[in-house]
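Could someone model adenosine-5'-monophosphate-propyl ester with this protein?
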Amino acid sequence: MVPKITTLSGYIHEYQKSIANPTGFWANIAETFYWRKKWDTILEWDFQNPRIEWFKGGQLNITENIFERNQFLLGDQTAIIWEPNDPKEEARKISYNELFTEVQKFANVLRSHGVRKGDRVAMYMPMIPELTIAMLACARIGAIHSVVFAGFSANALAERIIDAEAKVLVTADGGFRGQKIIHLKDVVDEAMVDCPSIVSSIVVKRTGHNIGWNPKRDYWWHDEMAQADAVASAEIMDAEDPLYILYTSGSTGRPKGVLHTTGGYMVYTAYTFRNVFQYSSGDVFFCAADIGWVTGHSYIVYGPLLEGATSVMFEGIPTYPDAGRYWDIIKKHKVNQFYTSPTAIRSLIAQGQGWVQDIDLTDTLRVLGTVGEPINEEAWHWYHDHIGNNKCPIVDTWWQTETGGIMISAIAGVIPTKPAFASLPLPGIQPQIVDPEGKKLCGKGVEGNLCIKFPWPGMARSHWGDHERYVESYFSQYKGLYFTGDGVKRDEDGYYRILGRMDDVINVSGHRLGTAEIENAINEHPLVSESAVVGFPHDIKGQGIYAYVVCTDIPENSEEELKNSIKKGVSKMISPIARPDQILFVSGLPKTRSGKIMRRILKKIAAGSEEYGDISTLTNPEIVEEIVDKNINLNH
Ligand code: PRX
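Reply:
Sure, complex below.
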């Protein structure tokens, strides 16, 4: 197991050590894992001409570090507690030994379908244990998994499968979410029309409803597993061999396949998991995210399982059958650490005090966590007072799909917290704040763009098939620094407060969406000639989506109809999570002489501000007045 920091002076000591000698620091942690062959070099890197390699020459398999390394210690211990959508259905407890057997069997299934080291396997699954099994089975045989969140549309799924040229797809007939059945297989069938690279799709039976079936391509999971051998050798991987691809939105173009490799990601997720949440043997850890996002990858699957934890996996939603569901799960499974998003907290606050009035979860609950977006002070206090009973520290964990694991966060009970502050960098993380011109802002009480100046083992190494875009996305803005895309403030105590995205990315309910992607989807509508999308403050979702749309023609009395059909189009092209909350039809967009849309003004208008700054550089300043008037009418 990785070493654990338990005191503030211990943190300060470890942090200083990690800055003075980063490679020595990480090598010590990496030593606690099982390597088939030790690395030749700890770190080779270059941020000017970006290339990052940790533990080069080292050989390992991440599943050997989950299963074989701890087998005698953990065999019968519960690895996964699966809590179904419907509380009347029985929860499943899967021990490390049982999970190991299932992983090996599915590894053999994948091999029997021709999957080899380096091949890509896509997953489009509900939150059921088979998803974790499939991911680990890929890791067992050196295949690269690409999990696509089950809320994405057929078009978005196909786009991701095509980009990764996935060979096999693992899916399910459907999934349960609250009162709804999500018809996943129907979406898959629609997507498959455009995905010739898929030779087999393996389907878990979850809902049992009728589905379409292609006998040349579709196989039932249970049939395949019934025939599979229970022993599968581990593929020996180089530390820098890819582990997975996860698509996320950037400020331009299509989603990018963020690529994580094996050795560094393993070391980083395990270390941050144990330290931030102060996990101790026997604790039950509940991360309420979906595995379709990076939080689930790192803190439901890899981090906890590498550290021999018991990880709760929840299929449903926080308001089903009622708004007390999370608290029931915490009580039922004696959860010690609970990790969720500010949006989930705000939506539960909106359900009223009744659900939290008489609860005390602190018999077992020790640590609370948040992730994905800035948490407002009101939500922080509610979480702290009502869920933690003033006893549980909140770790507000700042990180990104690209960082692989938590970067800036309190260590529970060790680093004192402040509402709405992510707090301090973890050992090994060297933040650098810069102004828009790239001037380094040092000392305390400064605000600017958040960069990182030294590599850490969990960082993404590339974008799948497009290293140039990786370089462009993070290393082109400020030479020699990794730019996160976030704004940040460092206060007088040296504490970090994340201010949100500085680029054209919107964070809706903790989900990252590129404005360009949404605009492309809107522009597909035959009556739309142009659009501009910005975020605006939203009480529950953090940010909502505001679309300014220019149409060639709006048939009389059909504005509402047109809005609905544009929204429908976005759901179909991307996902219902990308549906605009507000659409405003305008006759033009404010543009500079070079034709660039002045988003700064549109953001201000969407936020209801009357200060637009300088508009004299616009080619069409008169449009601002029209937009402001229409916006006022829209909101009344
Ligand atoms: O803007 C930051 C915000 O979420 C972005 C990363 O999104 P994604 O890659 O989808 O990963 C989300 C889960 C790790 C960041 O650039 N963000 C994440 N955590 C926080 C946050 N903003 C404020 N506070 C946080 N704790």
